Amino acid sequence: MPTNKTFTMIKPDAVLDGHTGSIIKMIEAAGFRVVALKKTQLTPELAGKFYEVHKERPFYNNLCKYMSSGPIIPIILEKENAVADFRTLIGATNPANAEEGTIRKLYAKSMEANAIHGSDSDENAEIEGNFFFARTEQF
Ligand code: RTP
Ligand code: MG
Hints:
The chain has a single domain (4-137), classed as 2-Layer Sandwich (Alpha-Beta Plaits), CATH 3.30.70.141. The protein has helices spanning 12-16, 20-29, 44-50, 60-67, 82-90, 103-107, 122-132, and strands spanning 4-10, 33-37, 73-79. It contains seven helices and three strands. Helix 3 (44-50) packs across helix 4. The protein is an alpha+beta fold. Residues 59, 63, 93, 111-112, 114, 117-118, 120 line the site of ribavirin triphosphate (RTP).
């Protein structure tokens, strides 16, 4: 079966709470291979650029503030059916609606501080991964 890639970030709330290792363990246990990974912090300007698709949404300003409030762990992942399977693994945006056993059910605090990001298409996975990692950092 051919593999494809997805992009994720462990968000500031989950990093600050010390859930990085547990979340990466769940991701690898679900069959995803790490292609690139680092720890960094976005400026509000960079967060604004990353979330540009949401700039007309009411939550955009708060989201950019929150996503630049602390360190994050961006990761490129590879697996068969990576984008859809990863969104199943993380669960619904609002943790109140997330399935039992999903990363957001376990670690998200609110609709905004929801522990983790997952790309919504192959095309966006490519754009988002390249936002954080040079080609020479992707293996
Ligand atoms: P993500 O992009 O982080 O994987 O999340 P998603 O697809 O499930 O949700 P999306 O609609 O793309 O929203 C991006 C992020 O914005 C925050 N958000 N806050 N307060 C609100 O109503 C609200 N809605 C969304 C969340 O952090 C969400 O993950
Ligand atoms: Mg999204």
